[in-house]
Automatic annotation (TrEMBL), chain A:
Catalytic activity: 2 (2E,6E)-farnesyl diphosphate + NADPH + H(+) = squalene + 2 diphosphate + NADP(+); 2 (2E,6E)-farnesyl diphosphate + NADH + H(+) = squalene + 2 diphosphate + NAD(+)
Organism phylogeny: Eukaryota, Fungi, Dikarya, Ascomycota, Pezizomycotina
Transmembrane segments: 426-451
Protein name: Squalene synthase
GO terms assigned for molecular function: D-glucose transmembrane transporter activity; squalene synthase [NAD(P)H] activity
NCBIfam families linked: squal_synth
Function per UniProt: Squalene synthase; part of the gene cluster that mediates the biosynthesis of squalestatin S1 (SQS1, also known as zaragozic acid A), a heavily oxidized fungal polyketide that offers potent cholesterol lowering activity by targeting squalene synthase (SS). Catalyzes the condensation of 2 two farnesyl pyrophosphate moieties to form squalene. The presence of a gene encoding a squalene synthase supports the identification of the cluster as being responsible for SQS1 production and suggests a likely mechanism for self-resistance.
Keyword Lipid biosynthesis attributed: yes
Record EC number: 2.5.1.21
Pathway assignment: Terpene metabolism; lanosterol biosynthesis; lanosterol from farnesyl diphosphate: step 1/3
Protein family according to the UniProt entry: Belongs to the phytoene/squalene synthase family.
One of the GO biological process terms: ergosterol biosynthetic process
From TrEMBL, chain B:
Domain of life: Eukaryota
Pfam families the record matches: 3Beta_HSD
Similarity comment: family membership: Belongs to the 3-beta-HSD family.
UniProt xrefs under SMART domains: PKS_KR (SM00822)
Protein name: Ketoreductase domain-containing protein
Length: 492, 369
């Protein structure tokens, strides 16, 4: 499976190879899953999950047990919708009701669909969709409600888009349309996931009161994919880049791919990256509200991949020539870093913001705006994890808690109590240390005495004022003999 | 409290870059207000006819300020008058330079505040500066807020603004006279009519000093567009006239869009169609030695170099301001984005250059003739 090209790549990029090995060796899921216990239908669902997704399957399968099945089903249902929407062999008259009524079939334990074209890659999922239906009926009603609500709204949105698209055959027109499309295919997913997290008490309910945050989560991922897949989509005659953007640079969309328009294509690309990048800080804000580790991993891995992909695409003309993606080594490194905590994830974002800033060129019409967008990411990180300098750390400042707020009287009392406790601990440790030292000294003195050391001589010598040992051997000898005399050895 | 329609507002430094913009905005936003200007320089005729009064005074001269306030009783004073030592003077350590800066920025503020209090006015908006905190050159300031104490500024400008701000916000004024004062600390302001910033950065193209970046180039820096600074001043004035929650407080204000320092320079050069073919990264240590050498060369030849150790320190620092306090107390949210602001400021500078060139052309014609 490993090609010679890959071998050569990883021999010259050893740190990426290290990431792969580390991820494979050391990564353990937060929640282990017992595959033996899964029912037939569950196994079937997991099989479809692996079939339809490379990257999402891994993070979904490591989710908290409470959300494992709901999220798997949610994903498969959305994938089912997507499979119908993508299939160009289904005429619009048939497609529209299918999309709009998809939520009606969810609890139908027998509903399947085999109307997809033979080349549709996820065809099998819809053919065996009854397994999903049966599992759907088993999950908690609250989850069911969330999933069918999102399914209904997404189906409607996709139907609107498909109809509209068929009418114009020109692709997306304005930036607003573009963001609306991303809302239907990704923003809604963000909403559904967030409602599931909050329902399961694994994320801060505040996330539901700040809908722009979950919207940005979906938009950032979807826009990144749309930017990266420009070539593939163009070859498949799908046009997601809004005309409002590309028409500033070329008159026909296909002109973007002409070699003589290379600079123009890069300018257009940087505007697309800019639109997405402005949402990065809101994504970080969102992820700060996730409480549980497996959910954090679930949301953070795709976001880290997305910002790395943005960096890969930015001012990279190859993107217009062929499909590009981040290497497996980079991906493993990013997965390691995005499955720790918010701070390491912030470091990833800061690092890529700076990489984008380094690639930014003053000849680009969006040069300053991109610089500001990168600055916005850094500024957000600073507001949560401030860099301390000698000037911001104040000497003799009033007692403060970890959150930087002044303490209440109860906290103050508790702090005093804690401090007293700490002092007592230090005393105990000191006593233990000195007791040990004293014991060892005693042992050594005892051992010396047993071996015949004359402490009486040493003491009387000290008494007569010889505190420092004599410098030369002769003096020492005379000293020793002067003490030895009374013992009767002086007859010589 | 409701904003009255009929108020007397005095803007000191009303003929300057910031002051003139504040006057124009006041006349627009509060058509009933009677606006006056105190400045050494006479405002343009266009503005002059819309003013209640023009008070000519040199704020460094106490008697001159007193005389100007004779039989004038404003409801609120916006004190923007001051001097910003530009270019090499920013890093000057000469006593006579310090005396001059201090006499205008500190003594001037004392004179204006004293005259204000004597006139019976109890509302005072002071244009301080973020340099009160950041002018020590030796520290980075990430997202710095108002809790950082003053008093470490070493450069003349920041030092003089610190003295003045501390004087204005001194609680004894509030206690004795019931003064309601606040201080705004803007970062570097750009915009049409800006006398220094764009010119300084533009000059680097002519001097061929655009091919290097000192340090790693990752340091963020804060700038702001003039309209936003003006808005903050008007909000502060309105606050002191109504809820008075800003009284006794200082506020950092910026565009809330920090950008990488060296990107900002390059963005301005690009506005003048200059894109350096390559930009070399110069390690700080090396630049330091070069700056030191350049200072000696400058000293020996008597010329004016751009490179010295002070400007190197300014170029490698991270400085951006946290505006949360201004947002929550004053309701300050910038209205013009920085990228747009840079375009507007550069367009204006291009016009200025064009007029200057034509003027020079005419002059040359005359000499030839």
């Amino acid at each position: 499976m490993v090609s010679a090209k890959e071998v050569a790549y990883y021999l010259t990029h050893v740190s990426e190879l290290r990431s792969i090995i580390q991820w494979k060796t050391w990564h353990n899921p937060v929640h282990e899953r017992d595959e033996e216990k899964a029912t037939e239908d569950e196994k079937q669902c997991f099989k479809y999950l692996h079939l339809t997704s490379r990257s999402f399957a891994a993070v979904i399968l490591e989710l908290h047990p409470e959300l494992l099945m709901p999220m798997t089903i949610f994903y498969l249902i959305l994938r089912g919708l997507d499979t119908i929407e993508d299939d160009m062999t289904i005429p619009i008259e048939r497609k529209e009701p299918l999309l709009r009524d998809f939520d009606q079939h969810l609890s139908d334990e027998k509903w399947t669909f085999d109307g997809n074209g033979p080349n549709e890659k996820d065809r099998a999922l819809l053919v065996g969709f009854d397994a999903v239906g049966r599992e759907f009926n088993k999950i908690k009603p609250a989850y069911k409600k969330i999933i069918s609500d999102i399914c209904k709204r997404m189906g409607d949105g996709m139907a609107d888009y498909a109809k509209n698209y068929d009418e114009q055959a020109n692709g997306v027109q304005t930036i607003k349309d573009y963001e609306l499309y991303c809302h239907y295919v990704a923003g809604l997913v963000g909403e559904g996931c967030t409602r599931l997290f909050v329902e399961a008490k694994l994320a801060n309910p505040i996330l539901l009161q700040k809908p722009e945050l979950m919207e940005s989560m979906g938009q950032f991922l979807q826009q990144t994919n749309i930017i990266r897949d420009i070539r593939e989509d163009f070859d498949d005659k799908r046009f997601f880049w809004p005309k409002e953007v590309w028409s500033k640079y070329v008159t026909k969309f296909s002109d973007l791919f002409l070699p003589e328009n290379r600079e123009k294509a890069l300018h257009c690309q940087s505007e697309m990256v800019l639109i997405a990048l402005r949402r990065a800080d809101e994504c970080l804000f969102y992820m700060a509200g996730v409480k549980e580790q497996s959910v954090f991993n679930f949301v953070a891995i795709p976001q880290a991949m997305a910002i790395a992909t943005q960096e890969l695409c930015f001012r990279n003309y190859t993107m217009f020539e062929r499909n590009i993606k981040i290497t497996k080594g980079q991906a493993c490194g990013l997965m390691m870093e995005s499955t720790q905590n918010l701070q390491t994830l912030c470091e990833v974002f800061r690092r890529y913001a700076r990489k984008i800033h380094k690639k930014n060129s003053p000849s680009d019409p969006h040069f300053l705006e991109i610089s500001i967008a990168c600055g916005k990411i850094e500024r957000w990180i600073e507001s949560v994890f401030p860099t301390q300098t000698a000037r911001t750390l104040q000497a003799g400042a009033i007692a403060k808690g970890a959150d930087g707020k002044a303490l209440t009287p109860e906290q103050e009392a508790k702090k005093k109590h804690d401090d007293a406790e700490a002092k007592k601990d230090v005393m105990m440790i000191m006593i233990a240390v000195f007791a040990t030292l004293a014991f060892i000294s005693l042992l050594m003195v005892g051992a010396a005495w047993l071996a015949g050391a004359r402490f009486d001589l040493a003491f009387s010598s000290l008494k007569s004022g010889n505190i420092v040992p004599p410098k030369d051997a002769q003096e020492a000898a005379s000293l020793a003999s002067s003490f030895a005399k009374p013992s009767g050895h002086g007859e010589l | 409290m409701q904003l009255s329609d009929d108020l007397r507002i005095l803007v000191t430094g009303g003929s300057g870059f910031l002051g003139a913009s504040i006057v124009a905005a006041l006349l627009e936003r509060h058509t009933g207000w009677r606006v006056s200007i105190l400045d050494l320089r006479r405002p343009s005729e266009k503005i002059l006819i819309r003013l209640e009064r023009y008070l000519q005074a040199d704020i460094a001269d106490e008697s001159s300020v007193k005389a100007a306030f004779k039989d004038y009783h404003p409801d609120l004073v916006i004190h923007t008058a001051g001097i910003i030592p530009a270019r090499q003077l920013r890093y000057s350590t000469r006593t006579e330079d310090w005396e001059r800066v201090k006499s205008i920025n500190y003594d001037g503020t004392r004179h204006v505040l004293a005259a204000t209090l004597t006139s019976g006015c109890r509302r005072f908006v002071y244009t301080s500066s973020c340099t009160t905190v950041i002018d020590d050159l030796d520290h980075d300031y990430y997202n710095v807020d108002e809790t950082v104490p003053l008093g470490l500024a070493t450069l003349h400008y920041g030092k003089s603004k610190t003295l003045a701000e501390q004087h204005v916000l001194d609680p004894s004024h509030a206690k004795e006279y019931g003064l309601l004062a606040c201080a705004l600390r803007p970062c570097t302001i750009i915009g049409p009519g800006d006398p220094a910033v764009i010119a300084l950065i533009h000059d680097l193209i002519v001097k061929r000093e655009t091919n290097f970046i000192i340090g790693d180039g990752d340091n963020l820096y804060d700038w702001m567009y003039i309209d936003n600074a003006v808005l903050a001043h008007i909000l502060a004035a309105e606050n002191l006239l109504t809820s008075q929650t800003a009284a006794g407080e200082a506020f950092f204000i910026s565009n809330q869009e920090p950008a990488y320092f060296w990107d900002f320079l390059a963005a301005i050069w690009a506005e003048f169609d200059h894109v350096p073919r390559r930009r070399w990264y110069i390690p700080v240590g090396l630049a330091w030695v070069a700056g030191w050498a350049a200072e000696w060369v400058t000293w020996a030849t008597g010329g004016a170099a751009t490179l010295d150790r002070g400007s190197i320190k300014d170029g490698i620092r991270t400085v951006f301001l946290n505006n949360d306090k201004a947002r929550s107390v004053l309701g300050y949210v910038p209205v013009v984005g920085l990228a747009e602001g840079v375009r507007l400021a550069c367009d204006d500078f291009k016009k200025q250059m064009a007029t200057r060139n034509t003027a020079n052309g005419i002059l040359n014609e005359k000499t030839k003739g």
